[in-house]
Amino acid sequence: MENNKEMRAWLDDLNLNHPLVIAGPCSAETEEQVLKIAHDLKDTDVSYFRAGIWKPRTRPGNFEGVGALGLKWLQKVKAETGMKVCTEVANAAHVKLALEHDIDMLWIGARSTVSPFIMQEIADALEGTDNPVLIKNPVNPDLALWLGGIERIYASGVKNIGAIHRGFSTYEKTKYRNNPEWQMAIEFQNKFPDIPLINDPSHITGKRDMVFDVCQTALDLNFDGLMIETHFDPDNAWSDAAQQVTPSTLVQIMRDLKVKKEGDAEAEYNSKLNNLRAQIDVIDNQIIDMLGKRMQASDGIGQLKKDRNVAVLQSKRWNEILGRMVLEGEQHGLSEEFILKMFKAVHQESINHQEKIING
Predict the structure, then answer these.
(1) Of 59, 89, 172, 186, whose CB is crowded by the most CB atoms within 10 A?
(2) pLDDT single digits (tens) 86-109
(3) Residue partners of 92: CB distance under 8 A and separation at least 6
């Protein structure tokens, strides 16, 4: 799939002076709930009102959405507020019903993107539609799978395409519900700069008090928009209560966000500088995370040495590490002096950890 500026046409046609904002409840619960939230959002930066009516759940027995009935509620939102509306589709039947009810934009969820068979079924049902279609990244961090899903939709004749970055599942416990893996989003942008990229901070964080920071990072990385789950009574939402914000909080988030300005050379310089700095911040956080994991492994080694009464410093092993890292560093344009200083510091911290355990 070659880069094609036509894929941005649907976004450019909105002629926004701010990032695209898609907001609304995780789930459409009742007609009254949907309409109340929509009216609370109608005079804000929100361009598309979102609501899930078919909810893929990890385990059976949980609320799985109101189904096709919710499409009529979304039609009322359009009629009463003038906002465009969107919802998630997970199969060909969903696509057919959504298009029949004049839903303006559709998105395909992470659990669907992970399956080429499902994506092809949805692509066939979407063939030739002018409605924008957004494709969320798959649950697992597989860039090729994400791009493959987009290519299937594009091959069906859909030209108004966007991507949603909602983070990735991981077995490791982190502060995020779904690890953002920002480097993957950056690589996506580098490969396909003409595909609008929307950030979903609600699913990345899983916590409403973290939404703002993720939004700011996304905008610093030149994302085109945000999809933020919004509910007038988040604590009593029927699904994903912890990650939804109130309409008033959403308004405040949009006021407080630092948005890049287009136009003059100084603004362009600052935009590029902020983007590169945001990339550095992402990598720095990854470095700290990996160093923390390295020290956890050192703690394990310290316990083994204590049990066997073995000395902390093992000179042969240390010299092997240094030699290997110097060679690795050269391949990445890093000087021998820098590698030696960095790994001596890492090694000393590792020794400190092990001595603490042995002397504990």
Answers:
(1) 89
(2) 999 999 999 999 999 999 999 999
(3) 121, 122, 124, 125
Token pair 């100084």 in the structure block, residue = 266
218 in Cβ contact with 181 (< 8 Å): no
Q: Supply the pTM of this predicted model.
A: 0.81
The CA–CA distances, whole Å, from 160 to 127, 153, 194, 327 equal 12, 10, 11, 47
Q: Residue 354 — φ and ψ, nearest 5°? A: -70, -40
> Residue type at 315?
S
Closest Cα partner for 229 from 216, 244, 242, 207? 244
Q: Would you say 231 and 248 are in contact if contact means Cβ atoms under 8 Å apart? A: no
pLDDT confidence bin for 261, thresholds 50/70/90: low
Q: Which residues pair with 105 in a beta bridge?
A: 86
* Fold of the 269-358 domain: Chorismate Mutase Domain, subunit A (1.20.59)
Domain boundaries, the chain: 5-259, 269-358
pLDDT digits (tens, 9 = 90+) for 280-306: 988 898 899 899 999 999 999 989 888
Fold of 5-259: TIM Barrel (3.20.20)
CA-CA distance, 81 to 119, in Å (whole number)?
A: 32
* 164/134 Cα distance (integer angstroms): 6
The beta-strand segments (E) located in the chain are 20-24, 48-50, 84-89, 105-108, 133-136, 161-165, 197-199, 225-229
